[in-house]
Amino acid sequence: MVWSSYLVRPQSGEKRLPIKVADNQWGTVINGIGDGQTTLKLGDLTPSVNDALAEDETRPWDRAIVTCWDDVPVYAGLIMRHRWVEKTGTLLLKHRELREIASRRYPFMVPTFNKAGTLVISGKSKRGLLRRLIEIAYISEPGDNWHFPVALGPDEAGAEPDFVKPNEKITNIEQMFSEVQDMDGGPDWYLRQAWDGDGRLYWQSEIGAPKLSAGMVEYHAFAATSPVTELAQDTDGTGQATGVYGVGEGSGQDMIVGLAGQLPYDPDEQIPDMDVRRSYKGVESEAVANSLALGDLKSVRNPTRQLSFKLHARELSRVKLGSTVRLHLDGSKFLRGVRDTYVIGISGDGTDHVTVEVQ
Predict the structure, then answer these.
(1) Of 14, 225, 290, 341, which has the fewest beta carbons less than 10 angstroms from its beta carbon?
(2) For residues 199-211, average pLDDT
(3) Are 166 and 107 in contact (CB under 8 A)?
(4) CA dihedral 277, 344, 92, 50 (to 10 degrees)
(5) CB 342 within 8 Å of CB 304
(6) Torsion of the alpha carbons at 323, 36, 201 and 133, rounded to the nearest 10
(7) Whole-angstrom distance, CA of residue 79 vs CA of residue 63
(8) How does the average pLDDT of the chain come out, rounded?
(9) Quick one: how far is CA 290 from the chain centroid?
(10) Residue 51 pLDDT > 70, yes or no?
(11) What is the pLDDT of residues 220-279, one digit of tens each?
């Protein structure tokens, strides 16, 4: 089992070239946009590709780098920029995950923009709402410049308030993704890269309920044979608060303000009363502002405790974004007990080990 990398056309999924990398750093995350950078020695593309073709095969947005372990994709990033250095014969590629596209897309296009129009999504659960936004962001007719090969999961009806976005606000779809995932009970989600049966790249949309569920793996972190190494924990209370004012659209007495406070807390972690203000651009419903404020409060009521550790890359067959990792911490000088943690990020640098981030 080894690392491998490919240049791929992201909109068709066509696998163009296997490539040897001089250096490859990448990171993939839930609820965000992973990125990376890859260094190539130009002669390392393939023996059949000469230097004159290299620029064509690394065009920004028209090519992606796919990184695999045991030929299973673990990261796919669309090339956004590159730097060629003639003296050293090196090409540095910088790339970001597909979700970056949604920050540059709206529910309309410039040629068809209607300032008086409004996006309205009704009769959905939060999961169904997010699925519809993913569909708007990526799905069109295969072969056109809007479409990406994203596989959607099943739709889900529900009784969430109508999701309303007037065109005149010009709100991009990434902002809409963030709004839904940040609501109280908002689902985690991820676009998981994979090869289809014909060896083409596609992305499977995975939406949690509210968390993703990618199975459980159990490790005794400090056992002699444990694959867990370099374990560390960051505890951060700088963003903690006991109440949230969520400010939406409007002004004066007509301003939309969502409120959240009085969440139960651990008496051993009692903190002073501290409130924060959040701005919710484009939110015109008090119910939505309240839901966003409660979601924000749940995320800041307690300090964040984020563990990270390294695993041998062969564990990637078991540990994925959305996995639950049960860590037995007997033997730690500081940590204690058993932690059921949730994988939110995985990154690699071309060595035999990857870094796993969990909460």
Answers:
(1) 225
(2) 97
(3) no
(4) -140
(5) no
(6) 70
(7) 6
(8) 92
(9) 25
(10) no
(11) 999 999 999 999 999 999 999 999 999 999 989 889 999 998 777 666 667 898 999 999
